[in-house]
Design brief:
The protein is an alpha/beta fold. Helix content is 36%, strand content 22%. The chain has 15 helices and 16 strands. Helix 6 packs parallel to helix 7, helix 8 (253-259) runs parallel beside helix 9 and helix 12 (330-339) packs across helix 13 (345-351). The longest helix is centred in the middle third of the chain and has 17 residues, at 151-167. It is globular. It starts with 8 loop residues before the first strand and ends with a strand. The structure holds N-(iminomethyl)-L-glutamic acid (NIG) and fe (iii) ion. Residues 106-107, 110, 216, 244, 247, 292, 319, 321-324 line the site of N-(iminomethyl)-L-glutamic acid.
Amino acid sequence: MNIAAPPGTLWRHARLASFQPGVPWGWIENAALWIEGGTLRWVGPESSLPRELPPGLQEHDLQGALVTPGLIDAHTHLVYGGDRAAEFEQRLLGASYEDIARAGGGIRSTVVATRAASDETLFLAAAGRASTLMDEGVTTLEIKSGYGLTQGDEARCLAVARRLGRELPLTVRTTSLAAHALPPEYTGRADDYIDAAITWLAGQQAAGLVDAVDAFCDTIGFTTAQTERIFQAARALGLPVKLHAEQLSDQGGAALAARHGALSCDHLEHLSPAGIAAMAQAGTVAVLLPGAYYFLRETKLPPVPALREAGVPMAIATDHNPGSSPCLSLLLMLNMACTFFRLTPEEAWRGVTVNAARALGLPDRGVLATGLRADFAVWDAEHPRELAYRFGHRPCRRVVQAGREIIHP
Ligand code: NIG
Ligand code: FE
């Protein structure tokens, strides 16, 4: 029997920020998008729409509405148990993030809550968070482990992340972050913990649970030597690496990551000129996390002018996690990237589309062009700069993911 392919769709009369190279925003004033399967069969101005379109195409008239690529949140820790509202209160009474971490709170308290939570509890909590992000046009999400810190609990958290990608209309990329914090049972034995975490990677990979490997290289995290060992193991398995680098101090982590061809280095408030040069040479993306900067009340800014000057691509992400960025709005991060970090609205937008795709090693998205994925959002705005300018609003009207409309007007 011949099974007919589902009819394609044609979205007409869009004001399109495509992020194709050539013109600012990749702007196409009166654009059409023809979708077949999950792919953009053709994108361009209405005036050059192919004459011979197949019969049965389902047409949508966007009546001049703004369309952008689906948003990509390239750095989250979405799967965890409990919350850290009490720690927030402690910080307001005078304790610092580092004080709390050193006293056994911080990441470790989330580890206790995560280990105690069932798979279903973790899944339902993470699915709720993912849905909130998706309501704002997010169609691709990276999720790190790092709150399990045993072989079984790390695998469980990665499996929950994978399940989100199967059960929600969302692409989920998973990152193994066993080197996030030293679990209590390894106190004083960080090198032994790294040895153990290295042995878990092959199994995670064989089970299809991991797309990349990350570490937290800092005074309250792991040393560059320990990070290097994790990276060597990841690279030996053919897994790409990324790094929480120079968040609270300059450890030279970014240069180390760049030497391993890292997809991205993230945070970067304390990044040095040598780190910037190494990232530029390796083509590593700088993922800036204004939510953590804001919530930890940091005062040292990431070196945006120098990154710009060196041609390092910049991405923006929520860093959603219970300790340093309990934020579920990527649009708010656009605004904060502009207000705090002085990115232009177009740079901020590139940071949640084309450069975010690059930070995840996904060349098929982040831009709306013929042959790429049909992931896009339709907005109640005339121009994407308005979405970086306002904050606390609800402008997302429709979302198409892999060619299917998942949020309707
Ligand atoms: O990206 N810096 C390390 N990890 C997280 C914070 C995790 C936590 O506090 O629970 C971050 O900011
Ligand atoms: Fe993080």
